[in-house]
Amino acid sequence: MSDNLPTIPEDYAAALMSGIAESKASTIVAGGGKDLLRMLKSGEWVFGQSNEEVQPGSRWVANVMSFAHGWCCWVEGGPGQKNELRGEIMVSMAKSKPPCPAPVDGTPYKEQRVFDLKCLDGADAGTEVTHKVGSIGGMRATLDLLDKVRGRLATNPRYSCPVLTLGNDHYDHTKWGRIYTPVFEVVGWADINGNLEGAAAKPLPQAAPAAEPQTKPVRQRKPPVAPMPDAAGVPWDEPAVPAEPVPTAQTHVGQRRRPAAR
């Protein structure tokens, strides 16, 4: 493989390793205009204002140079009103976490982590999103991911961007019922340009042009991405073979059905 492949500067990698360690040690258990990636209370991963569903099994590469830590302050709205973001301060994890600001109208700031991702394959290939983490479950999942990134920066900084599949776990709360928490499963590593380790260096696919806005966007269930091949050396962007259609009478087996529109 060529020695001219892009890599993360050694001084930045060292600063980021230190910043991740400091961020984890000081954590109690930005955006850039991209669509926000979040997990719904039902455990589904969605992005954008229309809650576009993440295709099951799709792979997303996280940009380590976008990792940021800091604070945010959400003030609860009145009856029938949404909560309001009244303050947010974020800096790169290559720098020390800023001090916690003073409360806003009596509401204290809470810790937040932010990072960008780009989809590698499936219906969302080329889509770029930002994930903001503030919940306890989300913070724990992110700290686990940061531990893996820190170890990778120490051993192979060239390919230190984790390639993830987005899943969930859950626990049963005595008051609130079933609570879902995010799971970031690392299935590979990529360089800063999204080229997978051990695969031919190829650019990421570009996102398709945005469709005309609709008055009432309709979410549609996406089929799972075809499983990754086990053989080594298969290019990550090889097109998946569509699955055979399932007879209508069997579509309910192993699938969740979305209620019909009213």
Quick structural gist:
By secondary structure, this protein is an alpha+beta fold. 14% of the residues lie in helices and 28% in strands.
Task: Characterise this structure.
By secondary structure, the chain is α+β, with helices and mostly antiparallel strands. The protein has one domain (10-201). The protein has helices at residues 10-25, 136-155; strands at 35-39, 45-47, 52-53, 60-62, 68-75, 84-92, 110-119, 128-133, 161-173, 177-190. Strands 1, 2, 3, 4, 5, 6, 7, 8, 9 and 10 form a 10-stranded mixed beta sheet that branches. The longest helix has 20 residues, at 136-155. The model is unreliable at 203-207, 213-217 and 230-262 (pLDDT under 50).
Task: Summarize the SSE layout with pairings.
Layout lengths: L9 H16 L9 E5 L5 E3 L4 E2 L6 E3 L5 E8 L8 E9 L17 E10 L8 E6 L2 H20 L5 E13 L3 E14 L72
Parallel strand pairs: 1-8
Antiparallel strand pairs: 1-2, 2-3, 4-7, 4-9, 5-6, 5-7, 7-8, 9-10
Helix pairs in contact: 1-2
